[in-house]
Structures are given as structure tokens and as C-alpha cells.
Amino acid sequence: MQADENSSSTSLCLPPCWKCSRKAVKYFRCATEGCPGPANISASSQDIIDNRIALCKQCAVRCPFCAGAIRQEDLHSVTDRPATLLSCSTEGGGGEGSAVGPTAGIDLQTLEEFNLQLKELADKVQKRMRALSTELAVSASGHPEILELLEQARKLVDSLDQQGLRPDGVTYQWLISLHARAKDKEHVEAWAYKMENCNKCSTDAYNSVMFGFAVPQGIDRADMWFNRMLAHDVAPDVKTFAILIQACAASRDSTRASRYFQRMQRFGIAPNVVVFSQLISACASEDHDPRSLQKAEGFFKSMQQSGVEPNNFTFMRLLKACANAGDARKASQYFNLSVEAGCVPNVVTYTQMVSVFIKNGDVAGAERWFSKLEAAGITPNVAAFNSVIRVCGTAGDVKHASSWLEKLEAAGCHPTEHTYEALITSVLYHKDFVGADRWLQRMLDTGVPPTIKIFIILLKACEHTGNLCQAEKWFNKMIEAGVQPDVQAYNSILKTSAVHDSFGRFRVRQPTCQEQRKWFLKMYEAGVQPNEATHDILTRSTCLPIVSAVASSVAAALQSYSHRFCSIGN
Prior knowledge:
mainly alpha; disordered C terminus; globular; two-stranded antiparallel sheet; 5 strands; 3-stranded antiparallel beta sheet
């Protein structure tokens, strides 16, 4: 029987696999000459001997008549689908005991089909995470829809194991990618370690691992996996460095991003538009660095000199850097340059242009660009309205901020935590604590989940006035709202216990020292790790004995935390 690789198993009328006696989805023929074939096969199946067609996928790579397992390149499918064999299937050798029987109730599949299903699940996770990130104020990784997709992946892996199939490099790649897209860092690393143990490492898989740590404060872990990648002799590619630089951007570290860029060049890898865009993004993420725009423009010039064409994302990050610097003139130049480059401005582009005026509180400039958005026939979204309200907040323009809130609601948009953050900022500009409390209560009453950032803004407003009573009220409201205070919140309320003198030093009275001690102990009991700022706040307060005791407590606490975290690391 002579059959080509495009024939179907039905047209071939193949008997069951002679090794495990079951019907298979695919059958293979061995291209290796000299294979003796099965000695005890019936004459009616002589055609199988002639073409060395014998086995289903599980048995084909364990041919008992060859010196070793058949290599992947020696097998050719005789069914309607291309052969997909896993390179790790040689483990365990041949023999009767190595055959895996069918599992009841499970449709037999090929590894190729499993991998395709994992890819489809990973794409669904990515699509849903993007949608949820725009809909929810909190992380979408724990959303029921995402958890359901992860459960489907788990069941798929169980089915893979039940059918006796072993993951190949592609399987690990998509399993890691799926969990990385879901921001499930624990399972990302678990599958990455399994991949290394099975020696199925690949560049794409390691890229997926590092992508899982392209999140705030994730760069150290991403760098660790980059070093493991090199230790396993897996070569990085341009995507590897783009992801590492993206992790730097998420961690607001443009210096480290520059180092990865230099290292990429030493590897002889040419940067592409993604790499340059992420470098600019890393600069734009440093919103408190006055040189962020200058550094971003430096990378943009390097990009132009390299002949790499910028895209819409490139210009968006440049506009973000301009917004950080409050440079409306340069922002307008880059906006025009993006249009000349063929980028079509959308609602996000115009919103970013409005945001350029936040730093200087230029309400007229923000409203002018918002009018351009409407003139372009683009429907503004809640982010566009929020940007104008934030400009009003910076300027302390309570009247305009309230009027833009009315426009937002009239447009059918719902206020978010960013909306109320801007409204609270506008009244705090005038030290109107009553007005701020009113907006906070309205936000809670309307069911908008507050973030810790809003409470930090409220607490910081109490620092320079020493209004400890109001600070305690907002601190308690934060806990009631289910928001866990962090070290910044505790540091703020510790500062509120003191009043600055004309030289910027803390002028503290004895009762205030007692308050500081009380709040520091609360911080310690809550398990919040004090930092250097905590130590500085207390030691700069005064030389009174009680504050010295507090400072000693801080030093002891810092040492205790240090020992604890070092032991965890070891």
C-alpha cells in the first residue's frame, strides 16, 4: 500500500495500532531503512510492514525494533494532518509496558491540537484582561471570567496527562504565556521550573516568563529569569529585551532600561520600534524626574537615526513625557508629527493632549484641546472628561471641576475614582476639608471603589496644618472602606503629629510625641514595614527622651524586618 501524507485514515482503512491495539487519530510510517518491523504480524497486514506503517503517536516514538526511539524527523504522517511529535517522548524507552491505553470518556487528541487549544485560551485571557482593565478600577486577574479560563486550562492539562501525552516546548510556552497574561505569577514560575526540569526551554517560553513580571516592582524577578535563560544556553532575541525594558518601564526605572538597551546592542541584536517605544515609555513613567522628557527625546532621536519608523504608541509615550514636564509646546509638535507620520488621532491621543495641561493647571488649554476632540467627530469617554477635571483640580478651580462633572454625567459616563480624586484635589487646593469629605462620601455612597491614592491625598493635606483629628477620621474611613493602609499612609499620619518650623524642621510638643508613638505602634502591629522615611520623620522631630525612645523602636523594628526578610530570601 503506497499512501501519501495527505491521505486520511478513513481512506487508508488502517487497522488498529499493532502495538497497543487501539484506534488512533493519526498513524505514521518510518522513513528509516532497515527497520525489521513486527515479526509476528499477519500476512493480511503485509502492507504495514512494507511501508513501516505501524503505530499510533504514543507508540511510534518507542519502536521496539529500533536500537533507540525513532527520531521525529524519521516519522511521516499517513493521515490527513501533519505529524506533531514531542521530543520528550523518548523518555522511558520502548517495550510493552510503555504503551498508554485509551482513557474512557475523553476524545483522543494530538499534542498539536492541545497546544492550539492552549493558544486559544491564552488569547482569550489576553483579550478579556484588556477589556476588564478598562472596566474595573482594581486588578482583573481575580475576575471570575479569568479564573474560569484558567480552570479550563487546568482541565486541558489533566486531559493531556490522561491521554499519555507529554508537553513539548510549545505546550510549556503557551501554559506560561496563558498565566502570564492572567498576571498569575505563581503559576508562571511553577510551569517555568517544570519546563527547565524537562529541558524543553525555548526563547519564546522564557519571553513569556519575563512578560509575567513586566509589572510594577517586577523587574528584579524578570532579570532573574533572563539570567536563567542565558544559563540554559537559550539565546535572547529582540522580543526578550523589549519585554525587559517594558518591565523597567512598569517599575519606573529608565536607567536600568538603558542598560538593557546597551546589553542588547552587545548581543548584536538590532532594536525595533517596540524596543525604542518601550525605552521612551520607561522615561515617561518617571513622572517626578524633570529630565524624563529630555531622556525620552534622546531615545527618539536614536530611533530616527537608526531608520526605525515610529508608530502610534511611540508618539503616545512621547506625549506622556511632555505631560510630565508640562510642556504643551513640544506636545503639540509631536502631535503634529504623529499626524504627518500617518497616525490617526483617537480619543486616547486627544486625552493625552488634555493631560499635558494638568501640571500647570491650564484650564483654558485643556478645554481648547477637548473642543478639538469633539470637532474631530470623536466621542469623548470618561478618561477624557477626567483629564479636564484633573486640570481643574490642579488649578483649584472648583466651579469648572463641578461643571465638567455635570458634562461627564450628561454624556452618559459614570464617574470613576479618578474623577473624585480630581474633585477632592480641587477643594483641597483651598484647604476645604469639609468639601473634600463631602466628595469622598459621595464616592462611597455611589459605590465607586476607592483606592489608597485618594486617602493618601487626603492624609497629606493634613500634614502641614497638623490637623490630626481630621487625619484620624480619614484614616479610619480608609479602613472602613476596605482599603489597607500602607507605609506611606502611616508616614503621612506620623507627619501630621508635627508642625514644620520656618526652617523646614519639625517642631514637636510632648503630647504630639505620644501621638507619634501611638501611631508607630499601630503601624508595627498592623505588620506594615517601616522605611527610611519613617525613621527620618521620627528622628527629626526633636531630641526629647520620648521621641528618642520612638526612634530606637524604629531602628529595632527596621532591624527586625531586615532579619526577617533576609531569612525569607535565604
